[in-house]
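batch_manifest entry 22 of 60
target: DNA polymerase-3 subunit delta
source organism: Nesterenkonia aurantiaca
requested by: lab member K.T.
priority: normal
notes from requester: please return tokens only, no post-processing; we will run our own comparison against the previous entry in this batch. if the run fails, retry once and flag.
--- input ---
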Amino acid sequence: MSVYTELVGQDAVVEQLRRAAGSGTPAHAWLFTGPPGSGRSNAARAFAAALNCEQPEPAARGCGECRSCRLVAAQSHPSVKLVSTENVTYKIEDVRALITTAQEKPQGARWRVIVVEDADRMTERATNVLLKAIEEPPPHTLWVLCAPSPADVLVTIRSRCRLVSLRIPPTAAVAQLLSTRDGLNEEQAHFAARVSQNHIGVARRLARDPEARRRREQVVTLPLRLTSSSAAIKAAGSLVEMTQADAASTAAARLEAEQASLRRSLGLDAEEKIPPKLRSQFKKLEEENTRRAKRAVADSLDRALIDLTAVFRDVLSLKLGTGAELINEHLREELQRYAESLSAEQTLAGLDAINAARVRITQNVPPLLAMEALMMQFLPGRSRA
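--- output ---
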């Protein structure tokens, strides 16, 4: 199975990467961009695998079957470093460690490849530390950065990178992948692909997890159920509580597993008191867990806002009479009634309000405050341009 299997609807990108991987002289720095769901991280990992594929024929590299390709897929290839962060931003010491790694020669491979997911989460200071490594890389090292758009990284970085632009795959292509790879029937696959707005990872989760589908339904029907200021405030609180509870539950389970693993590595029994000289290691785990939970809440809220954006896009489509299939086609009757209560200008104002809420979350505005302001805009007669 080719390493490019998940890049559905990205034929031009796949061809670009195939040529580069087989050329023998690929550019030393790459920037993969695309909106959430476009598969930019999958494309970067596939490119890293193809660069070191053991197939002797350049055109066949990226086979997905050789030992090197399998190691990259398992994230255990000694010469391919896949980097991501669960914190709000990358720490500068993490970037310095990557630069040290970049100086090492590849082990039994053509290239040392460093894939940095969410490069837009680097602070300006961290990016400036990375700049010199990208300007003057060792001859055996390739950097692959991933970000939503070129504007999300410093111009000094993107000007030194070969750009690869990905797009959201079509609904039919995502549905076909879910059917052939995950065994969903045609109806399930099409529904999951459509309501996820063609985000493969989200579509898979919605198809498999009834609770995820229930939470999404609660989110997308919020504007349809708001009739008063008190209801708007309550809805905002419920939405934030739901995302915080999910994040806290996941974070607590992960922290418990990490603490148990650390205890085993230090030779401590499960109930044994932690010696004072080892407490700093456990405190570090707790601090990391706090940072992860903060990002998890922000990411979950952002996903909810993306789903709300789909609602207003559907309403606008109904207002303009486009005749296109709705993202929330299963709610067509409810959305039609809601559309009759809004003008096109009010619908656009709703989209603007959602976008403003997404920006506020990234600017560390308290989530509850941002959601309350947004829900108030959804009240009848309040969404005005």
